[in-house]
């Protein structure tokens, strides 16, 4: 059983921020910023691409509500919502989850940067995706 399923089943203690019949939100043990929260469906789903529409909608509703609450309560200047799908993308637990990461400034322990990449033929890219 995955570690998040064990947390959902209350076999491993956690700091619960929010819980309903379908979604659990807990404080991340590795707080990259104060208030860093993980939001996950209670049913075991590996990635976003494996998720059914109803579960995805339930999770996103909670993320939206908690992101606003966390930003207001912490005084954060902004919020990142992050989801990794697959090992190559940095997913370390094979259970769908989203990080809500409050942002306070440039000294935060979390950084997300979009570097300049090689120019792409956007018409070719679009055609390859359809």
Describe this structure in words.
The chain is of the alpha+beta class. The chain is built from 3 helices and 5 strands. Strands 1-2-3-5-4 form a 5-stranded antiparallel sheet, covered by helices on one side. The N and C termini lie far apart (37 Å). The model has no long low-confidence stretch (mean pLDDT 95).
Sequence-ordered SSE layout with sheet pairings:
Elements: H1 3-8, E1 16-19, E2 23-27, E3 37-41, H2 53-74, E4 78-82, E5 98-103, H3 122-129
Summarize the structure.
This protein is α+β, with helices and mostly antiparallel strands and 130 residues long.
- Terminal Cα span: 37 Å
What kind of sheet is the major sheet?
Answer: 5 strands, antiparallel
Q: What does the radius of gyration come to?
A: 16 Å
Number of strands: 5
Quickly give the structural class: alpha+beta
What string gives the helices and strands in order?
A: HEEEHEEH
The low-confidence parts are none
Give the helix tally.
3
Give the helix proportion (percent range).
25-40%
Strand order of the largest sheet: 1-2-3-5-4
Mean model confidence by pLDDT: 95
What shape does the CA trace take? Answer: globular
Features:
single chain, 28% helix, 5 strands, 5-stranded antiparallel β-sheet, alpha+beta, 130 residues
């Amino acid at each position: 059983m995955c570690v998040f399923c064990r947390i959902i089943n209350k076999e491993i203690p956690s700091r619960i921020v929010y819980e309903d019949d379908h979604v659990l939100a807990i404080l991340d043990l590795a707080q990259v910023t104060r208030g860093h929260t993980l939001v996950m469906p209670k049913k075991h789903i590996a990635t976003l691409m494996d998720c059914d529409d109803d579960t995805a909608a339930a999770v996103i509703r909670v993320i939206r509500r908690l992101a606003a609450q966390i930003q207001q309560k912490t005084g954060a200047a902004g919020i990142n919502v992050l989801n990794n799908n697959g090992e190559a993308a940095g997913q370390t637990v094979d259970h769908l989850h989203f990080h809500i990461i409050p942002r306070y400034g440039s000294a935060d322990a979390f950084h997300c940067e979009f570097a300049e990449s090689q120019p792409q033929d956007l018409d070719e890219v679009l055609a390859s995706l359809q």
